[in-house]
Amino acid sequence: MEIKAPTFPESITEGTVAQWHKQPGEAVRRDDLLADIETDKVVIEVVAPDDGALTEILKAEGEVVESEEVIALFEAGAAAV
User: Fold this and answer.
1) Using an 8 Å Cβ cutoff, are 17 and 23 in contact?
2) What is d(CA 47, CA 68) in angstroms, rounded to the nearest whole number?
3) What is the pLDDT of residues 15-67, one digit of tens each?
4) Burial of 25 (0-12, 13-18, 19+ CB in 10 A)
C-alpha cells in the first residue's frame, strides 16, 4: 500500500518531509503519526491508514514532496520485524 503526502491547500504546491516518527519494520496502529510534512504555512501530519508497518521510506527527511506524491510503502496487518 502506498503512503502519499496529503492533498495540500490550494495555494501550496509542495512541502518538505520534516520528520519521520516511525521507521520501516516498526509496528504501528491505525492513525499513528508516521511523518510531518512542513510547508511555508503549516505542518501537515501523515498518519497510518491501518494497523501494520512501514516497509520502505521513499522520501527522506529534508526532501521536497508534492501534493499526493508517494512518500512511503506500508503493509497493512504486518507484524514488526
Assistant:
1) no
2) 14
3) 999 999 999 999 999 999 999 999 988 899 999 999 999 999 999 999 999 99
4) middle
Question: What residues are paired with 46 via a beta bridge?
Answer: 35
The residue type found at 24 is P
> Could you tell me whether strands 33-38 and 52-57 are parallel, antiparallel, or unpaired per DSSP bridges?
unpaired
Q: Among positive and negative, which fits the CA dihedral 20, 44, 5, 65?
A: negative
Amino acid at 4: K
* Contacts (Cβ under 8 Å, ≥6 apart) of 10: none
Write the CA distances from 61 to 27, 33, 37, 41, integer angstroms: 20, 15, 9, 18
